[in-house]
Specification:
This protein is 34% helix and 24% strand. The chain is an alpha/beta fold and 237 residues long. It has a six-stranded mixed β-sheet, sandwiched between helices. A five-stranded antiparallel β-sheet has the order 2-1-4-5-6, covered by helices on one side. Helix 3 runs antiparallel to helix 4 (130-143). The two termini are 19 Å apart.
């Protein structure tokens, strides 16, 4: 069981043309420089951008098929989506945000506890830190009980220490779930840590040579570090 997509979309600067697969219970990390098409790809998976051509299927469910005229709206794709910019309702508390569209309120309590937000549940988003807001955004996405989780550079606006803590928390909780996760980042260290598979996107296409250049070991890099990176990258190809 997996998510599969064949996508083609003409943009102002290039044409996106990619094929990707992400099995249940695994994370696919899309890595590449800014403006390479990563966000457009994840928005096509979400149904927020329509491909010019292609097909998106999760298990036996067709989200999009240009040849058959199928294009499910986002609300029918049963997915969780975490944006870069704290997509929370300012008038709701953290609990109210996390519980919005939740399938089970007990799950909301458990998620708030896991992400260390229980003591802050009655505060509004503007009353907590950026890291706490983004923790709540992840809780909101997971509490929907999605069949697919999409994360578009969810921690890019945070400081280095907070970003490291949140990606550790995210990795722990996604490892307990059975749905596919697609994670967009321009941080190679983050991609290698989060992703079971790493897919390099440059100019709207998969670019293995770019990935090899970025991950080429510097002089003095020890053999264990090099071996770990080589193993992870092999999964993408």
């Amino acid at each position: 069981m997996c998510l599969t997509a064949v996508l083609k979309k003409k943009t102002k600067f290039f044409t996106i043309s990619v094929e990707l697969t992400c099995p249940d219970g695994e994370t696919l990390a899309l890595i590449g420089p800014s403006g390479s098409g990563k966000t457009t790809i994840i928005r096509m998976l979400a149904g927020l951008v329509t491909p010019d051509e292609g097909r998106i299927v999760y298990r036996d469910r067709v989200f999009f098929d240009s040849s058959r005229g199928v294009n499910l709206p986002p609300q029918k794709r049963k997915l969780g989506y975490v944006f870069q910019d704290y997509s929370l309702f300012p008038h709701l508390t953290l609990y109210g945000n996390a519980a919005f569209a939740a399938q089970d309120r007990r799950e909301v309590d458990a998620l708030l506890g896991f992400f260390g937000l229980t003591a802050l549940r009655d505060r509004k988003p503007q009353e907590v830190s950026g890291g706490e807001r983004q923790r709540c955004a992840v809780c909101q996405a997971l509490a929907r009980n999605p069949q697919l989780l999409l994360l578009d550079e969810p921690f890019s606006a945070l400081d280095v220490v907070t970003r490291r803590l949140l990606r550790n928390e995210l990795k722990k909780i996604t490892e307990t779930r059975t749905f596919p996760v697609v994670y967009v980042t321009h941080d190679i260290t983050e991609a290698l840590f989060i992703g079971n598979t790493v897919l390099p996107i440059v100019g709207g296409a998969i670019d293995r040579a770019w990935m090899e250049r970025i991950t080429a070991p510097a002089a003095g890099t020890d053999a264990r570090t090099k071996a770990a990176r080589t193993t992870k990258l092999a999964l993408a190809y």
